[in-house]
Every structure is written in C-alpha cells, then in structure tokens.
Design a protein that fits this description.
globular; 275 residues; alpha+beta; single chain
Length: 275
C-alpha cells in the first residue's frame, strides 16, 4: 500500500479543489482519496475493481467495505462524504444539492433582494458556478424558528430602510406596530405562517463565490463570518419536501420536479453542466 496522503496537501481535487502530489494522474483517484480517505493504492484498486465486486451507478467499481472506507457502491459514487466521482464522467450530469433556510430568508433570496447567505462553513462540495436548490424549512413556533427569523429580518429592514424593496416585511412591520390586544400575537403569527411557503423547495440559485469579509460595496444582508454570494436566482413553484442540515441530496422524484419547474421558470433552459 502507498503512503497515506494528508488531506491538507490536496488542492486540485476536481470536486473540492484540493492539491494532489504529482504521481496522481487520474482525477478520480484524487477524488476517492480526498473524500473517502486511504492511499493512492486503495484508489487504484477501487478503480480497477480489485477491492470490490459491485459497481456503482456510474459503472466504476466500488472499494467495498475494505478497512471501513466505502460501505457500498452508492457511497463511493454518490457519497455521504461528498464524493461524486461518478458524476464527473463525460456525459453525466451533476446533481443539484439543496440548502434549507428558515423563513423569511429563503423567500428573501428567491423573490427578494438578498443575494448572500451567511454561514459559518464553506459550501463543500459546491464550487463557484454550481447551482443549489433553496429549501424553505418547516413552520413552527419553537425557539430558533421562523418567528425569530422574521424578527431578525424586520430589524435589518428597519435599520437600513429596506421596506420599499421588501413589501412583505413592510406589511409585517405594519402588523407588528399596529394596535395591540388579545389577538396581537395570533395576528403576527398568522401573517408569517401564510405569507410564504414552508417545507418546500422554492427556488434555485448559482453559487458565485465565498466571501470571507464584508464586500467593499455595502450589502445590508451580509454579516458573515462567511458569505455565500449567490446569483442567477430563479423562484419556482414550491415543491413540497422535507429538509435537512448542511447541503443535502433531494429524493429523485423531488429533484426531477425541481428541474422541470426550474426549466419552466427560466427565460432560457439551464445548461447541461448545471442541470
């Protein structure tokens, strides 16, 4: 077996941009080592079919359960760790990953002026130019949910005079600052529950880049520590779907519906590389 390649030395992996030593010639070897661990010899064996008996969706051999690396062909090819070596093959389309946001942040991206998503982590395995589906999280009244999200968005709109650009927040401000009484909380909650969709994919956006500091041009929605800059945003007819944490894969039937509604909503069809 070859030497274990430290992950910090990889910066040319075609999935995440990691560096690979010169002896790596097949990008798929880099992808396997980078995302499933192990050595180059492990990757060579997996690709040659010497370490497993099953093929993944792409036809590439799986390294099986040898040393606990990949437990199935699907894990090697579609990978819970982010490895998508099979989707880099010629003629194979990359899957669109989804990101769940509590409302109203999802709506502010797909139908409003917000073009940055603030996160504490980088969007691995996405690269600039990739597209992601914007998913609106579920409605609930627990701590950390939509009620707090609406309150935070309202505060930004107040501080930076954004009500003219965001009518739904202007309407919420009217309700919040209106007459208080026995049904005040019910009126506020009823509005934010009905104003936007929940538990659904509501749009698709392109990842333009990741900003580590506030852009030179003032962006009222940027607060970091990392800002995922978004562009080419398309709102779609909501596709009901349960969300998840991080970047996640939509069920096949949901993905197919999202693609169809995205194509219908765009002025021109999406290119093959971003389908």
């Amino acid at each position: 077996m070859g030497d274990v390649i430290p992950l910090h030395r990889m910066v040319v992996c075609s999935i995440c941009g990691a560096e690979a030593p010169a002896r790596f010639r097949d990008p798929a070897e880099v992808e396997i080592v980078c995302h499933l661990g192990g050595t180059r010899d492990d990757a060579v064996k997996a690709l040659a079919g010497l370490a497993g008996e099953h093929n993944g969706p792409c036809g590439r051999p799986c390294c099986g359960n040898e040393k606990g690396r990949a437990t199935s062909a699907r894990e090697l090819c579609m990978g819970k760790n982010g490895c998508r070596a099979c989707e880099k093959l010629p003629g194979r389309k990359r899957r669109i990953l989804a990101l769940t946001l509590i409302q109203p942040w999802a709506e502010l991206i797909v139908r409003g002026p917000k073009r940055v998503e603030n996160r504490k982590w980088r969007p691995h395995p996405l690269r600039p130019g990739d597209y992601l589906a914007i998913h609106a999280g579920t409605w609930h009244t627990r701590r950390g949910g939509p009620i707090e999200g609406w309150a935070a968005a309202l505060e930004i709109a107040r501080e930076r005079s954004l009500f003219e650009r965001v009518p739904m927040l202007a309407e919420y401000e009217r309700i919040v600052t209106g007459e208080r009484g026995r049904l005040y909380a019910a009126r506020c909650n009823s509005y934010i529950e009905q104003a936007v969709p929940y538990s659904a994919v509501v749009g698709v956006a392109q990842l333009v880049g990741v900003e580590t500091e506030a852009p030179a041009e003032v962006d009222p929605w940027w607060y970091g520590p990392l800002g995922w800059r978004l562009g080419d945003v398309t709102a779609i007819e909501p596709v009901p779907c349960r969300g998840s944490q991080g970047l996640w894969e939509m069920p096949d039937e949901v993905l197919a519906t999202v693609r169809a509604r995205w194509k219908a909503a765009r002025p021109q069809p999406a290119t093959e590389a971003t389908s």
